[in-house]
Amino acid sequence: GENVEQHPSTLSVQEGDSAVIKCTYSDSASNYFPWYKQELGKGPQLIIDIRSNVGEKKDQRIAVTLNKTAKHFSLHITETLPEDSAVYFCAASTEGGSEKLVFGKGTKLTVNP
Amino acid sequence: ETGVTQTPRHLVMGMTNKKSLKCEQHLGHNAMYWYKQSAKKPLELMFVYSLEERVENNSVPSRFSPECPNSSHLFLHLHTLQPEDSALYLCASSLERGRGGYTFGSGTRLTVV
Q: Helix, strand, or coil here: B46?
């Protein structure tokens, strides 16, 4: 089955710097890659996703890149703010196939003012 | 609020108790999920319901019993739990099973004493 590895497990940056979180997946059939942000006391919230027919997607300060050959995808947050502090999860699934979302273990991002 | 509501937010129960967790969504989604979130572990998928029919049970012990009376409501009935079952239990929904992003509730923090 699918296995998703996520790094780093913790990340600390200064406000205004960029943050990058990386994930690798094992199942070459995976074609859907969402990213979730979980703030303290809340459930994970979808912040951006990408499908395997594109290599990059951007939404304001957040971007996701996908390298299908290497089977890895990354979340990039630019001009970080203290409110970006949270745990971020990547996930992978095969839409139209196994359909099961497999999550990484999460990255705790701290943005220091 | 994400549109997925979970109650109660917190629950403390003894190992001999019987309790139920409730999840409700009015997003028009046809698939609903139960996840277990423990510290330092990936999100663990427990059950999947699609159009009120259970389509997946990930080797979950029988002390956890799901129920989906209609497409808007999902329950998780608990009985004779163990301390290691203490975790955050998250409900999620999606438009269709395995398609698109999931919308998560805020979870029920369960403590078994």
A: strand
Strands B31-37, B18-25: parallel, antiparallel or unpaired by DSSP? unpaired
Q: What is the per-residue pLDDT for A17?
A: 97
Task: Give the CB-side neighbour count of residue A43, counting CA atoms within 13 A.
Answer: 28
B15 DSSP assignment: T
pLDDT tens-digit profile of B14-57? 988 899 999 999 899 999 999 999 987 888 999 999 887 887 77
Minimal Cα–Cα distance from B106 to chain A, Å? 4
E strands present in chain B:
4-7, 10-13, 18-25, 31-37, 44-50, 53-57, 64-70, 73-79, 87-94, 103-104, 108-112
CB < 8 Å from B in window 36-95 of A: 36, 41-46, 49, 89, 93-95
pLDDT tens, position by position, A41-84: 899 999 999 998 889 999 999 999 999 999 999 999 999 999 99
Q: Measure CB to CB from residue B107 to each of A43, A98, A105 and give the nearest one.
A: A43
Cβ B93 vs Cβ B4: under 8 Å: yes
3-state secondary structure (DSSP) of residue A83: helix
